[in-house]
Amino acid sequence: MIPGEFEYHRPATLADAVKLLSELGEEARPLAGGHSLIPMMKLRFATPEHLIDLSGIGQLKGICRDGNALVIGAMTTQHDIIHSADIALHLPILKETALMIADPQVRYVGTLGGNVANGDPGNDMPAVMMALGASYRLEGPDGTRDVAATDFYQGAYFTALEPGEILTAISIPVQPVGHGYAYEKLKRKVGDYATAAAAVTLTMAGGKVTACSIALTNLSETPVLADAAAQAVIGTSLDEAALKAAATAARAVMNPAADARGTSEYRTHVGGIMVMRALTRAASRAAA
Amino acid sequence: MAKVTLTVNGRSMSGECEDRTLLVHFIREKLGLTGTHVGCDTTQCGSCVIHMDGKSVKSCSILAVQASGSTITTIEGLAGNGELHPVQAAFKEHHGLQCGFCTPGMVMTAVDMINRHGGSLDEPTVRHELEGNICRCTGYHNIVKAILSANAEMHSGRQAAE
């Protein structure tokens, strides 16, 4: 319950935050919503000597249109995402997913940037970002760079973030009008990380799938893009054989941990079921 | 050490604490407002829910120093002039509490959900909105009844006036 001692900083600009983070090195952590970091600190799993609170930096919050993408500031909360008209119109899978994350109080505070930068395979948004082809803007002492969500995750709590870098925004291509989408999450109870979850976006024409993307949550050390599974349904009408082929292909890229949520075999089995359900629901939402 | 200044239940209050002091401990130990409870150490139970700048938050997972400058309402700030807030009255009327330990957080969450849903609350929505608050005693059923009743009461006057 009691975190170790640390020094608190609240920079007013992004430049100051980056400077602090790079000067203080590994003993400093950015503080966003604090709803993963502070719980870890209360259990002394994390013992940073400095916290750099990003909440004073106005530019990190908000959702805006930039060409064919929505750019979401890293400090935008899950609550903001659920109530954004732009998200509901262009990226409705984000709203669906956010409503399955944690609980109302946590969603008021927890941010999209914190969710995707955390590096815990249990977080839901990283797989959704992979399925959507999102990219992350990273600001560091040497300037700005963009990293695709599909290249960001390297292991459990191990990401492409370099020392001194802050994830400042998430850029997500707007989905085509009439696309289908679904996030299917199996969990033991409200607020739990997924036993298995699947994100699907697809488009259909003439009753056949024309494009599809599938990504998996908490079924490996990192979120995983299930490319072969998506390929297996393109050109099909998502009949039973196609769904089964997708589940089989998706299971081949799963390697879930055995824990209180079940054995690795169980989680792989239900992971395939989440893929089939997500595909079915996405198709039911797509304009044929 | 940090100096933390808050508007708490309408009054400006300040105190010194360590940077690592959690808001719930600041409220309980520095401000002496012990209605806000601690039921877990993993941000799940919601016994510590307060309103910060109008939003229900879990004060066990926010640093006091982070909250400095904000406006806070705790369970002690809900009743006005000795008269219970309609949500408090409804919890009493509908037996929405037994041991009372989750009740402050439950009531603060209930007020927030009623504010946000503007009268259109139904049972599934109430249960969904209660997902951040755990109760060991009631089985939730009477809490749901209390919230629906308070919601009806808080919005009936307005609808009649409209």
Automatic annotation (TrEMBL), chain B:
Domain named 2Fe-2S ferredoxin-type: residues: 2-78
Keyword field contains Metal-binding: yes
Pfam families noted in UniProt: Fer2, Fer2_2
Highest taxon above the source species: Bacteria
Family matches, as InterPro entries: 2Fe-2S-bd (IPR002888), 2Fe-2S-bd_dom_sf (IPR036884), 2Fe-2S_ferredoxin-like_sf (IPR036010), 2Fe-2S_ferredoxin-type (IPR001041), Beta-grasp_dom_sf (IPR012675), Diverse_Oxidoreductases (IPR051452)
KW Glycoprotein (keyword) present: no
Record keywords, A-Z: 2Fe-2S, Iron, Iron-sulfur, Metal-binding, Oxidoreductase
Molecular-function GO terms, alphabetical: 2 iron, 2 sulfur cluster binding; metal ion binding; oxidoreductase activity
Name of this chain's protein: Carbon monoxide dehydrogenase
Species of origin: Ciceribacter naphthalenivorans
